[in-house]
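Narrative summary of target 7.
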Amino acid sequence: MASSSLPRQQAQAEGGPAEDAGEVTSEIVPSRQVQRDHPPYRMIGDIHQRVTRSSVASLAFFSHSAYVATFEPRDVSHALSDSNWVNAMHEELENFERNHVWDLVEPPPNCCPIGTKWVFKNKQGENGMVVWNKARLVAQGFCQKEGIDYEETFAPVARLEAIRILLAFTASKGFKLQQIDVKSAFLNGFIEEEAYVRQPPGFESARFPDRLRKALYGLKQAPRAWYARLKSFLLKSGFVMGSVDKTLFLLSHCGDTLIVQIYVDDIIFGGSSHALVSSFAEQMSREFEMSLMGELQFFLGLQIKQGLKGTFVHQAKYTRDILKKFNMGDSKPMTTPMSTNTAIDADEHGEAVD
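Modeled conformation, tokenized:
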């Protein structure tokens, strides 16, 4: 029978207690000396080099890259070769199933189903790091014919000027704007027309096409269908739609005010009562699948900092992206008489907004 003990000399060399001859031990507990005298040749990197913030950031970048793909696929076959993008496509199809987007049916006579395609996009954070691989299945809208596949397509969209006015107004009132993102927002809109689409490339399960129940990205009537669904929900919840800006909704309750601004599937809101704001977020989460993103910090390319003295709006990330695009990232900054940043001061703009 083989003994599990170590020789006395080996145990002493590794810092373990000396054993009596013939004594059998089932376990050797390493001492602190083993860790302190770790052989240098087993250490990774230069042991004389100090750890800096930049090196820690590099390690964080590579560890994060293990969970997301850093490239955007050329086509479906390219995406199917990477497990991260396969997971992203499965996530999109699971959204379809949860929202009951389509039914697998036999096509009617003389039916020409609308084609579908995958669109792959890496979502970046404020620091430019890829934080999310988004695979979206869209309909090929050019296959649609007006009067057959759709009727009306118009849907109101908030203008950038309206967003700036809202920022100035909320700064004057001391409101903190929050942001929510509705996941696959267009899949919540009901379409009135009868439409058929082909199954997603790479995931065909049968020879039949799908009959749509909900709006699909790429359909010309999809934005209108989503806006109609969201508007109906807000009006039933007691909101009043703006008379000029149809994407602005107001709610008054017991002397408190809640403001909601819509930009397709991005929604920003704020109010004079924390309870009213929290209640609205809960209502939205019960009705739609969404992500509560917290305090508004990044919207339509604008970086927003909300403080006690006002709201500061800048485009530092956009500036870095432009410099990187034209290989000017190493250029030295120069001061100019006119600043490109915009500060919205509560005291200065309060009277003008009122």
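The radius of gyration is 29 Å.
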